Amino acid sequence: MSDSAELVKRLLKGDRRAAAKLITLVENDNNGQSAKIMHLLHPHTKKAYIVGVTGAPGSGKSTLTDRLTHELRTKEKTVGVIAVDPTSPFTGGALLGDRIRMKESCTDKGVFIRSMGTRGSLGGLSRATNNAIRILDAFGKDFILVETVGAGQSEVDIVNSAYTSIVILVPGMGDDIQAIKAGILEIGDIFVVNKADRDGADRTVMELEMMLELNPKKNVWRPPIIKTIASRGEGVEELLSCIEKHRSYLESNNLLEKRQDCRNESELMDVLSYRINKYLLDDLKQSGSYTDLLKKICEQKIDIYTAADEILKILWKKS
Ligand SMILES: Nc1nc2c(ncn2[C@@H]2O[C@H](COP(=O)(O)OP(=O)(O)OP(=O)(O)O)[C@@H](O)[C@H]2O)c(=O)[nH]1
Ligand SMILES: [Mg+2]
Predict the structure, then answer these.
(1) Which of 82, 216, 302, 303 sits in a 20 to 30 Å window from 126, CA-based?
(2) Are residues 208 and 303 in the same domain?
(3) CA of 259 to the centre of ligand 1 (A)
(4) Partner residues linked to 190 by β-bridges
């Protein structure tokens, strides 16, 4: 039996080390190992409930995730936590930081915590994270909490794959609210104003309410706004009850299936474009006609669009 098959077998029996090893394998994705692993895992997935937690650096995502994990554990739910850290790929600084902040949950067997760093090519992080989510799903975790810094496309992609997305803001971020309005506001199913022990929390809630009012996307679900003090665990119970309400809303309106479909489609497109890039374009770059066309562009004999048309013709002929 291959290495990954053995690991998947151990994962399904509840072996934590196998879970950790498998996530490392999908992170590195050497020799197409992710594909093999995902093939074996697929029948064992689609059970976990995925929650995205996003917000600016330092807004309290890890603290809140830790508290939420604790709250879920009191309800006897098992939890997987994935902290996506796109900014510090090498040092492991954020990893340690998250570990320390999440220490409360760390010794608990019902909790599995993992940080993911930027790796590989563009978009590799969201693919690795999606695969890690599936690994923890097959591992049997009831809830998977995914922490991402709310900036950049890959984080938005990751949040998009959650069933319930929590957007965290902190008081005194008026300008930031404006800045994130376009992207993050649309994906928030629940808004949290954390650090409510600071001045201006009510004002932030008000500004947020006004912004949501202006949001043209009028859904039956009106995103609630909750004030929390994550460092003291205040408001966390209410947050969990909002997550449960949102889940019931999705389930009773057949929207959970829809979100799962969206998630599957975006992952399929991601894998397809990755493969098209990797196999077709890599192959093409080795070919003489590609080098010839490139040379012609440099010599001003052909423009880039015409060259691209020529390349597409070559690819179509091949397929
Ligand atoms: N005053 C106050 N401090 C808080 C609260 N919640 C978290 N903090 C503190 O804010 C700091 C950042 O919290 P984290 O949970 O690490 O924030 P984060 O969003 O995960 O940060 P990054 O992962 O680095 O982006 C820590 O020092 C926390 O103790 C709160 O409700 N009130
Ligand atoms: Mg954090």
Answers:
(1) 216
(2) no
(3) 30
(4) 166
Asked if residue 191 is part of any domain, the answer here is yes
Rounded Cα distance, 121 and 270, in Å: 12
Tally of domains in the chain = 2
Domain encompassing residue 294: 270-318
Same domain, 116 and 227: yes
The SS3 call for residue 79 is strand
Please give the number of the atom of ligand 1 that sits closest to the Cα of 194: 31
pLDDT 10s digits, 261-275: 989 998 999 899 888
DSSP secondary structure code for residue 277 in this structure: I
Residue nearest to ligand 1 atom 17, measured at CA: 60
Question: Does residue 103 form part of some domain?
Answer: yes
Three-state DSSP state, 168: strand
Tell me which residues have their CB within 5 A of the ion that is ligand 2.
61-62
CA distance 146 to 80: 8
Confidence (pTM)? 0.88
